[in-house]
Amino acid sequence: QVQLVESGGGLVQPGGSLRLSCAASGFTFSSAAMSWHRQAPGKERELVATISTLGGTRNYADSVKGRFTISRDNTKNTVYLQMNSLKPEDTAVYYCRARRITTGYIDWGQGTQVTVSS
């Protein structure tokens, strides 16, 4: 059974930082491209950041570029999202996604809430 479990969300003031983690199991983590997505109430889910299987290629949405950093540790089967200089518009449920490069099969985590408010 594939599992993606996010953690690290919470309430933070504008300008603050959070580090999200996504622990993966049930598949070969190093053969999966990983990404973070977010969804605010009433809005569609949007891509935040992606990272290739070995971490050599990273891409970001324009809205988070320069503030967020995606990384992965293939020895721990974990992908991270470091979020700095947080803004109220970053408030959303953040989801971890895995795409297995052999099959293209996609799996989603349950999400973790991030709230940026004073």
Could you explain the architecture of this structure?
The chain has 118 residues and is mostly beta strands. 0% of the residues lie in helices and 53% in strands. It contains no helices and eleven strands. Strands 2, 4, 5, 6, 9, 10 and 11 form a seven-stranded mixed β-sheet that branches. A four-stranded antiparallel β-sheet has the order 1-3-8-7, with no helix packed on it. The chain is globular, with a radius of gyration of 14 Å.
Please compute the radius of gyration using only Cα atoms: 14 Å
What is the N-to-C succession of helices and strands? EEEEEEEEEEE
How far is it from the N-terminal to the C-terminal residue, by CA? 40 Å
The coarse silhouette is: globular
Question: Which parts are unreliable, with pLDDT below 50 for 5 consecutive residues or more?
Answer: none
Instruction: Report the sheet-strand fraction.
Output: over 45%
What count of helical segments does DSSP give? 0
Mind summarizing the main beta sheet?
7 strands, mixed
Share of helix, binned: under 10%
